[in-house]
Glutathione S-transferase (Rhizophagus irregularis), 268 residues
Amino acid sequence: MAKSLRTISLNNYFKWLSVVKLHHFTTPDITLYSAGTPNGQKVSIALEELGIPYKAREISFKDNEQKQPWFLKINPNGRIPAITDHSRGDFHVFESGAIMIYLCEHYDPEEKLLPKDPNLRSQVIQWIMFQMGGLGPMQGQAIHFSKYAPEKILYAIKRYTDETKRLYSGLNSALEGKEYLVGNKFTLADAISFPWVREYFLADIPSIDEFPNLKAWVARISERPAVQKGLNVPTPDIVQEILDNPEKLNELVKRAQSVFKWKSVGEK
Ligand SMILES: N[C@@H](CCC(=O)N[C@@H](CS)C(=O)NCC(=O)O)C(=O)O
């Protein structure tokens, strides 16, 4: 590992000490391997919301670091995010949803993000599965075909964009009369889908005005201080840069295209 680790959470370290005293836990020592994408941001948002001390290690897609042998030992799937929990014998976890559940199982004694009540817990896990099996893969394809594919395949763009909007409408209905998806408080259910929905415009969806509950939910979550911190790990948040300066969209898409060099999905 040539790059140095960046310690980003001294505040979390002190916050955590009080939790340790109260619940007799050991202090966590976690490395997060990530890049500035929604799948990585979900995990840094969870870490920040839980107030867990951690170090972030940026994985360079430009150098294809995610496919290097040392990283494949941590995540055989060769993708970010992943974590290593040094406080539990260098235990590795990959797949963002699995990481978020792991963090709560070990480091959420106050049930901040994952309730213990079986019904509420089931509801949170249902939204985790919805995101991991539906929203992430579908919106990911919508973004790929509308922004990064070397040729414009209208059928593929429409198929994945329509499916993403269908998934948004499910979220919008679930949010009717509610501020958060489960149990009237922010949980993993919200943390996992939020970084994807907020970048709807990358998926050829010009606005989410037709989903007013979802739009208000995005605005509400964006204001959470821990969420803002998590979005800027391990690099400054590009989506916010585009939201602030929409004319930067093309420039940033070009930058991403050059990083992936037209890499197709599933390619090694
Ligand atoms: N299901 C995985 C998806 C991870 C994923 O697709 N990560 C992307 C960035 S968002 C990645 O590492 N891409 C690099 C590559 O495909 O080589 C998860 O949720 O952790």
About this structure: The domain at 118-260 is CATH 1.20.1050.10 (Glutathione S-transferase Yfyf (Class Pi); Chain A, domain 2). DSSP finds eleven helices and five strands in the chain. The chain has a mean pLDDT of 92. Residues 37, 39, 61, 66, 78-81, 95-96, 132, 136 surround glutathione (CB under 6 Å).
